[in-house]
Amino acid sequence: MWHQRHSHFRSCAVFASAAIAVALIAIPAASQAPDTLTALKSAVARLQGKQPGGGDSAITIVKSLQPRLPKIADYLAWIVASSQFDNESYTDVAATLAPVWTQKPVSPLIGRATVLAARADLQLGHPRAAIERLRGNYEKIPQPRGDLAMAAAFAADNDPVNAVAYNQRVYYGYPASMEAAQAEAALATLRDQLADRFPPALGRTMLARATRLLELGQPDQARKEFIALSTQLTGAERDLARVKIGVADYDRKQTDAARNYLETLEVDAGEADAERLHYLLLCARRRDDRAAMGDIVDRMARQYPASHWRLESLWALANLYLTDNQADNYEPLYRACYESFPKDSRAAECHWKVAWSHYLRRASDAGDYLRAHISLYPASENVPGALYFLARLAEGAGDGRAARVYYNEIVSQYPSHYYTSLARERLAAAAPVVHPGVRPAVALANSALLNNDAGDFLRGVVI
User: Fold this and answer.
1) Domain spanning 363-463 has what CATH number?
2) Which of 78, 173, 213, 315 is the most buried (most CB within 10 A)?
């Protein structure tokens, strides 16, 4: 227990002393008397154990410096309160932290201070006070530290069911954290205590933990958990756990094992099967088996046309062909992406890949694709590029007036974009720019061009 308290304080002191060093920069030079700074640094070093000397005397020094350093009073209070907790002076902790509670604007230490004061409440045998303190600042407490503190407070308040709930938040929501190990140990104790009354976690919650381990680069541990879940769960959740075993093998770079497992695995039709097919596609990609990848994409189009995993497969194969500059192969895939999944965040990028390909080949419909990109995806990062290349197409067709309209639109609407400097260069090298006094007419021309209305465009252009 002493070691845990000491380690806790040591990390707190390191955090606070670093913050103090930054905060001191903002203090006027006149108030930074050499003796003040020297005394503060020496006291903090002692509390961190970097210099010999009594901790109590260091606390006294820090307290004496607080009136001289009001801008970092909350940090100084935090250092003192952390040391008091380490020295088991629990009754003093909350009062010492008063500068943190009253800081305006709100101190960045308020979450950490709340947990520290709640831990002191627990040591004093006041679990209800700890719960109320944590609830009062819950949104400001860093997680998973806050939920672990709540779990400890409920356990001390003889409320094991709520203690389980908060420990499960930590264990399942933050699987790679140090707090997760503490929550796991607490859950084991609570399971023995509650027996049949122990509230089990939902299947999707357990799956989410193992999936998060995969995302965090821990496929070995994730695989163990998926294997266990495949025997505990039923229905679609069991199917998903079984598929994820193969996904974990893929992430472990065991490509052959993953492929063999997923190829022979039988699950019901649904998202789990769609994910199984997607990872078979990824296994084929590692072997550079384009034919197998194409077969899987075609199969997913028939069986799971609206599945997220079909989009992932289309995206993976399209990007592979893009790197080889095989437009005839990647264009249909990108087109399927934006046509089948128009609301996905990648739809605009897929459409741009097709539009750009048509422009590079100077296809007769390149301008149509560029205008469509502006119309369909007005927030796309490629809109300035679409305007620029529409201008280049107009120049190539001998239509300088239309080109100026496009260039002016880039300059006026995207002043900091890469294509803005290029547009300015093209305008400077071209005929005189449209006079600013006729902006309404230019706006009409721009609108007409974007809507492909030739009549309105001709009426709006000023020569």
Assistant:
1) 1.25.40
2) 78
